[in-house]
């Protein structure tokens, strides 16, 4: 049967005291979409509120995968994202959370999102996130009472990267927050492609890492194709 991936996106479009415009960072959804499409997967979208999500980094539209996403079914379908509360996430083989600054606004404490990630992880489906997307993993507690990220080899947008990008806009530094909950954080050079799979958890550091996250998710989903 065809594998099913649910891409869960933020609905935020501004962040911070200066009302910086934001959204989902285009390549962080477009590049994984391209990989999942090539793998023949069914790709669906859910957003936290069910409202149309926003895209950031449209200046990168000339990249082939980004352009295909914008002009093909990717963005068309993402605009029709259903409300997360109305989705039976148990039907999916994997969930994926792209970044952009938007998830830092509405995903740190979203109770249903935390429940969905906990249940998905504990049934051994694949959980993937890239850049600021791993904020979705923050504050997720497993059935044993431990934080999901505790002891996990993982990465996200780093404090060093944030200092040069949006430190004045974000409510906290994601690397620091994940580390405080016990993550074994691995940082590569700023803006370099870097993704990590630890069991059924796959994370990536920044926009350049989004393709690698999808590739690693596919490898976990289909180990025979390694």
Verbal overview:
This protein has 226 residues and is α/β, with parallel strands linked by helices. The chain has a single domain (4-225), classed as Rossmann fold (3-Layer(aba) Sandwich). It contains eight helices and 13 strands. Strands 7-5-1-8-9-13-12 form a seven-stranded mixed β-sheet. Strand 12 and strand 13 (201-204) form a beta hairpin. Helix 1 crosses helix 2 (64-71) and helix 1 packs parallel to helix 8. The longest helix has 13 residues, at 26-38. The protein is globular, with a radius of gyration of 16 Å. The relative contact order is 0.17. InterPro entries: Class_I_gatase-like, DJ-1/PfpI, Prot/Nucl_acid_deglycase. It holds the Pfam family DJ-1_PfpI. Belongs to the peptidase C56 family. HSP31-like subfamily. GO terms for molecular function: glyoxalase III activity; transferase activity. This is Type 1 glutamine amidotransferase domain-containing protein.
Average pLDDT, rounded to a whole number, is 97
How many domains is the backbone divided into? 1
The gyration radius over C-alpha positions equals 16 Å
Identify low-pLDDT runs: none
CATH architecture: 3-Layer(aba) Sandwich
Number of helical elements: 8
Write down the CATH class.
Answer: Alpha Beta
Largest sheet report: 7 strands, mixed
| Morphology | globular
Helix % is: 25-40%
CATH fold type? Rossmann fold
- Main sheet: which strands, in order across? 7-5-1-8-9-13-12
Number of strands: 13
Beta-strand residue fraction: 15-25%
CATH superfamily grouping: Class I glutamine amidotransferase (GATase) domain
Distance between the termini: 19 Å
Order of helices and strands, N to C?
EEEEHEEHHEEHHEEHHEEEH
Domain DJ-1/PfpI: 28-218
Keywords: Glutamine amidotransferase, Lyase, Stress response, Transferase
GO cellular component, one term: cytoplasm
Pfam families: DJ-1_PfpI
